[in-house]
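User: ok so my PI wants both of these folded by tonight, can you help

Assistant: No problem, let's get them done. Here's the first:
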Amino acid sequence: MPSDDRVELALTAMQGQRDAFRAALGSTAEQVQSFLNEHRGSENGGAHRIAAELGPFAAGHFNTDRLATLFESEIRLDGLTLETIEQARDTIAELTKRNHDLFVAHVKPGGDVREVVARALEEIGRAFGAVRIFELTRSGSHRGNEHARSLGSFPFVKWSKGERRLAPPLVVTVDGADLRAERLAEFLDGAQKIVLVVRGKCAPAPLVRLITPGTFVIQTSDGTGLDRLAVHDGPGIGALLPTDAARFVHDPAGGTPLANRLSVTHLPDREPRLSIGGVSGQQQSEELRQLRALAAAPPEATPAGETAQAAAPPAPADKLAAWLLSQANFSDL
């Protein structure tokens, strides 16, 4: 299957999360615009309205500024504050209009997969940075250039716990020789999903080092199982690999026993001998041995009172937008 077709396959599998994120951004931009419409011109706006209502007789007889403070409870925002909020709105609107390119990253031959993923998530993170600026600005806590940088990039390391739970999926194309999947472990948090579309030969079990009890991990050659990755209520990573690579699914929904979580459907007949990129044949063999050892773990009974957690669908767009606009408390940063 050509690489472009596999990218489309991965994007289709993750479509629900992508659409929810984009719809939420659109709704958020509209709500920020509504806020601007309500408060634009609030500087002396109340005074102007009172003067118009009182008519020419009020001129020189009443201090309409003081009357406005008595009769209006709206937030008074100066021009600089409104301009900052407009910049945040424009950033959200720009990201909303982006097509697949916001959710797809390409590692050039010889490139560093971790650096590419980090940059792609920084770009996605601009949405979270813009919402933070909006909340901080309208609450009077905005600190000029310190927060304005969030509109240009907002790295994953700065994302809050809640933001990591709302992260959209990322599809990454990479040569097998450049695939060092273990370097992506730092991004597997919250509900972040990464799907690797691997070009050419690669190590047979490159994702085995990423198996942890709460992380969904899948190696597939035809996309089977990516739908399960998409609805997993937690972090996950998948790889579309050549047909001679190992194929397995590690699904945390299986419960505590490893044997209930891990299903291996294919193992290569031959041990790898040649290096691929910077990964030696010995290192590749060790990864295969680790996968075999994990697959051989004896089944265990699920402890009393413990049940496997059913996968939850992505958060609806309206709930996501509501969350984005409610983040005035960043105590978990």
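One down. Here's the second:
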Amino acid sequence: MKEKIIAYLSGPRPYREGIALYEEYGLNLMLKATFRRNTETDLLRATLMEELRKLAGISETAFRTMQRKAVDSPHISSASIVVGEIKAEETAVNVPVTPVVENVIRFRDRFPFLNSPDCPDVLKILVADMFTAYDLYLKTFRELGELPDDVELEQAFAIAKTTVENYLEDRSIWEELEYYRDNHVLLGKHPRIAVSLASDELSNKSDLEVMNIRKNAASNVSKWKKKLETVEGEEERAKALAAVDKWESMKSAAEKELENRKKN
């Protein structure tokens, strides 16, 4: 069973194939029914992957950092995952450390640029945000699994919403880190990175241009907040929230730039 699930998790992870695996090996009948009845969402996919991870006996750290093969790539066995964990442990200082410290050491090994003096400050800030988002995701994910059958829908929705938002935040930051590691430039898809890049550009613009940027950002904040009132689906809601955050940050950056110019 474990080899079969690990082979799946090491590949492109088609959603329907994952459901079939859980149908065969999973124990939670309610989850099986939920997967069968509903179309794929970020929350359901995250739930499915987490359940398969536990069935395969893969640690959270190994799962987050496991190698993924392309469709036609050679199979990655569970042994390679274990070896990967051992190698990660060997990079740590040879003194007793807590599991939290071990995870940080492994993380730093994966993204060595974080130790460099020329690492952008915004990435260092996002790392802290990512750990917070991941912890909240795990916490609320467990809460979802422990909800009684007669739970109020509003309560379940609130927990599910928090779970999805923190999962997407964690993945978004992870993508930024991997892109910077591989390309040595910022990707800019995460709202905070996008604003950081925009702030660098603001310093080269005239007062009038910065004021127009502030006005445009304020308009977009209003537009996306209105969309939030009618948007349907957790994924679309998360996108709208990200847009609000992006434009609010942009507006704040423009206001800060104008304020700094007044002082100077």
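Residues 191-263 form one domain. Residues 111 and 181 are 7 Å apart (CA to CA). Good luck tonight!
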